[in-house]
Write a structure and sequence with these properties.
By secondary structure, the chain is an alpha+beta fold. The protein has nine helices and 21 strands. Bound molecules: fe (ii) ion (FE2) and zinc ion. Fe (ii) ion binds next to loops.
């Protein structure tokens, strides 16, 4: 024991590790390099929080020369004469958790929240926060009341991010024109899929804006939660789930002036073992390049997941009306549409964005709400 202040005590181990013990609760053990790297003084950390020190410049066996607890801080003197002062009890609290809501899987039976209103999104930060929470937790939000005119999507995406421009342009048009080079531009039904797995990085957000609806029947939008389907596969057929997570496949799109190729697994797991990204697009897979053994197993797993994704119990169906905008997580929620019966009458405009935009915007909105700034006028 080297020091104590109030109920908190600090002890230094033989290897220089500092153990902080609160009066009640869990102790926290911090190694010297971590403490040196995270010195909050103005020499080591810029005002915005960006780090100035480079921990790789310090010796691996760095040890504090001196450790003491003062009234509301831990103070460490380092061998080179630098002094670090860490405010307490913040240091005991550990890493700041992310404030984003947990993803909530859904299926056809899950109640849909109310649609969001395009004008309110622009005027009311609380409404925008609720919309972005829906995008994060369920992977989809329906916005109504956007102007049913080409280009209006720019104003929606600008509320939380930036257009991810591609070779299809900033915005792309989905019309019922038969004979176009991409199947999405024809009137055929499209089974649920995620877009553009042949891009690296794959766009994480897709917006679809209905400018003109086909009243003649067909052309309904279908949505499937890839996360819910993956969870069902994991429970029903663990080897198939593992195979889809462990095996990269190729995706490719060749069109006028582009040859886009990328390799990803159908289910990409995060370090926590949970599904982080789902890609499903049977039209843009390259021929599988496996030997016969793996090919047989892979086709089995691939088909098992495909059957789940096609299960009507997982699909939500909705008819987009002019002025509707769907905001979707393109690395989670699959979209499709039923066959269009009257070509030429339907016009959607779409665009891509990245996942980090809406997440960042949501964090800043939650933080502003905490600080009691309240809704802007
Ligand atoms: Fe699509
Ligand atoms: Zn410092």
């Amino acid at each position: 024991l080297v020091s104590s202040a109030g109920p908190i005590t600090a002890a230094v181990g033989a290897d220089g590790t500092v153990e902080l013990r609160p009066g009640a609760g869990l102790a926290r053990r911090l190694v010297p390099l971590w403490l040196r790297e995270n010195c909050p003084c103005p020499e080591c950390t810029a005002p915005g929080g960006q780090r100035i020190v480079d921990v790789t410049a310090f010796p691996a066996d760095l040890r504090p020369a001196d450790v003491r607890l003062v009234a509301d801080a831990l103070e460490i003197g380092w061998p080179d004469g630098h002094t670090s002062t860490y405010p307490m009890p913040g240091l005991l609290a550990g890493p700041e958790p992310d404030r984003l809501p947990r993803p909530e899987p859904w299926d056809a039976g899950t109640a849909l929240g109310d649609p969001f209103d395009a004008l309110d999104l622009a005027a009311d930060p609380a409404h925008l926060a609720a919309c972005l929470e829906a995008v994060h937790s369920s992977g989809v939000a329906l916005v109504r009341g956007a102007e049913p005119a080409p280009g209006a999507l720019e104003g929606i995406v600008g509320l939380f991010g930036h257009v991810r421009e591609t070779n299809y342009g900033r915005l792309f048009d989905v019309r019922t024109v038969i004979g176009a080079e991409n199947l999405a531009y024809t009137g055929l039904g499209l089974p649920p899929h995620t877009d553009n797995p042949y891009r690296d990085p794959t766009p994480g957000i897709q917006l679809l804006h209905c400018i003109r609806a086909d009243e003649g029947g067909g052309g309904e939008t279908t949505l499937v939660d890839g996360l819910a389907a993956a969870e069902r596969l994991r429970r029903a057929d663990r080897p198939a789930y593992d195979l889809l997570a462990a095996t990269e496949i190729g995706f490719r799109y060749r069109g006028s002036g582009v040859d886009l190729r990328a390799r990803f697994p159908v289910l990409r797991l995060g370090a926590d073992g949970e599904v982080a990204e789902v890609r499903w697009n049977t039209r843009s897979c390259e021929p599988f390049d496996f030997g016969p053994r793996l090919a047989r197993a892979y086709y089995g797993a691939y088909a098992a997941f495909g059957r789940l994704l096609a299960d009507p119990l997982l699909a939500r169906r909705l008819r987009l009306r002019p002025g509707d905008v769907l905001v979707m997580d393109n690395l989670r929620v699959l979209h499709g549409r039923t066959r269009i019966e009257s070509p030429g009458e339907r016009h959607l405009q779409g665009c891509y964005a990245d996942r980090d935009g809406p997440r960042s915007r949501l964090r800043t909105l939650l933080e502003a709400d905490d600080e009691g700034e309240g809704p802007a006028p």
